[in-house]
Amino acid sequence: MIRFENVGLRYGMGPEILRDISFQIPAGSFQFLSGPSGAGKTTLLRLLFLSLAPTRGLITIFGKDRALIGRRELPHIRRKIGVVFQDFRLLEHMTTYENVALPLRVRGRDEASYRGDVTELLKWVGLGERLNAHPPVLSGGEKQRAAIARALIEQPDILLADEPTGNVDPPLARRLLRLFIELNRSGTAVLIATHDLNLMDQVDARRLVLADGRLTVHD
Ligand SMILES: Nc1ncnc2c1ncn2[C@@H]1O[C@H](COP(=O)(O)OP(=O)(O)OP(=O)(O)O)[C@@H](O)[C@H]1O
């Protein structure tokens, strides 16, 4: 679904952060992305989510050359890619329910048409009792799960998660991993950026490892 061929990226006139990156996200795959802090994991996720353009190389996304995707088409393609950001990006003045429903509301959907889906998804991530809470009173793990629910509400083909277990204890990390596995079994491709070796050891999945700007693939 997404393919990188010899992709390079530099910020402004700075050094090349990513060099000759080639890999794919096949439909229905489950992969980890790891590498030391500062290696460029978040930058790679931003390329995948089309919030950055490569400075060289080719990115093909759902069969289209990324360089030929116009501004008007971007939101349509992004909708197929759910992202859980490291800092969650929840809106504090909205409840958990409203945060998760926001992408649908923005598209002009009528609340009656999605209320049941949002509630069900929040129950699935274990936040059935926290629908009306605002982010400032949620724990780190609850915010993480709200962010996961928001990333999934439009049923994306791919879920990208940046350090989803970075701020949670080991039992919750295992629970989140189970959610990702369940999601993957239902057909969604999952890519998790993480430092957490313990987490990676729990799943027999391909590992993409970034170091010194280059990516190696370990099957
Ligand atoms: N907007 C930016 N402008 C300039 N340099 C940037 C920008 N964003 C990131 N960088 C640099 O790019 C490099 C890779 O950063 P990135 O955040 O992608 O790494 P990371 O592997 O996700 O790190 P961590 O695991 O600590 O989150 C770092 O040297 C960082 O300073």
Automatic annotation (TrEMBL):
Residues 2-219 form the ABC transporter domain. GO terms for cellular component: plasma membrane. GO terms for biological process: cell division. It comes from the Bacteria. It is found in: Cell inner membrane; Cell membrane. Keywords: ATP-binding, Cell cycle, Cell division, Cell membrane, Membrane, Nucleotide-binding. InterPro entries: AAA+_ATPase (IPR003593), ABC_transporter-like_ATP-bd (IPR003439), ABC_transporter-like_CS (IPR017871), ABC_transpr_LolD-like (IPR015854), Cell_div_FtsE (IPR005286), P-loop_NTPase (IPR027417). GO terms for molecular function: ATP binding; ATP hydrolysis activity; transmembrane transporter activity. It is a peripheral membrane protein. Part of the ABC transporter FtsEX involved in cellular division. Important for assembly or stability of the septal ring. Belongs to the ABC transporter superfamily. Homodimer. Forms a membrane-associated complex with FtsX. This is Cell division ATP-binding protein FtsE. It comes from Nitratireductor mangrovi.
